[in-house]
């Protein structure tokens, strides 16, 4: 992914998604004050709602999408996928879910992150997009492959046609997890050798969300995958990190639009 800046708003774009208006945003360019400084788009973290609203407007303006058409979900660490036809009047979010997909133009899909993995999907043949939020729970529930199946069932998308970007999230050197997570990874993936590493000092486990979701996508038949390789916990100068900032922080946005 490549770093861009527009009127103080800093965001990352992928060449795989060049045909789309999109961005994975950083913490730079907003109006929120510490500890939410500055482009916090999380509405339930304790920030001033007026600042959050201003940040949303700035984020959408930076990539030229219509704020009034933006759609989101209430993220609950599931593997549920919502088909989006457009915003619903009188509602801020469409459903409890962790992925959205649409074939509607000018309908931005917007999600929030602070260590979990943004996964952005594009089918250039069927003109379909999707966005997913994958923490460890969503990953071991197979959210990435759930999106691939949902795009196929709803729109006829073929996995080999998909372009998928695994965006900035907590990296494998910083994501220490408990044995219950290791077991969940082992059960879902049939092993943990490629996705879990052990500390040589004390044997504690670290989960590689990037590799886990890449494997999930490859098993679903996806071949064109980009991994940003940007760790939110190591780069708190650039991104919000729930783990590194001990829970007192904001959320950065990821937006994708036909």
Structure in words:
It is built from five helices and 14 strands. By secondary structure, it is α+β, with helices and mostly antiparallel strands. It has a single domain (2-257), classed as 4-Layer Sandwich (CNF1/YfiH-like putative cysteine hydrolases), CATH 3.60.140. The strands form three sheets. It has a six-stranded mixed beta sheet with strand order 4-5-8-7-9-13. Strands 1-2-3-14-6 form a five-stranded antiparallel beta sheet. The protein has a three-stranded antiparallel beta sheet with strand order 10-12-11. Strand 1 and strand 2 (9-13) form a beta hairpin. The longest helix is centred in the N-terminal third of the chain and has 15 residues, at 49-63.
Brief synopsis:
By secondary structure, this protein is an alpha+beta fold.
What descriptive keywords fit this protein?
alpha+beta; CNF1/YfiH-like putative cysteine hydrolases; six-stranded mixed β-sheet; 5 helices; 21% helix
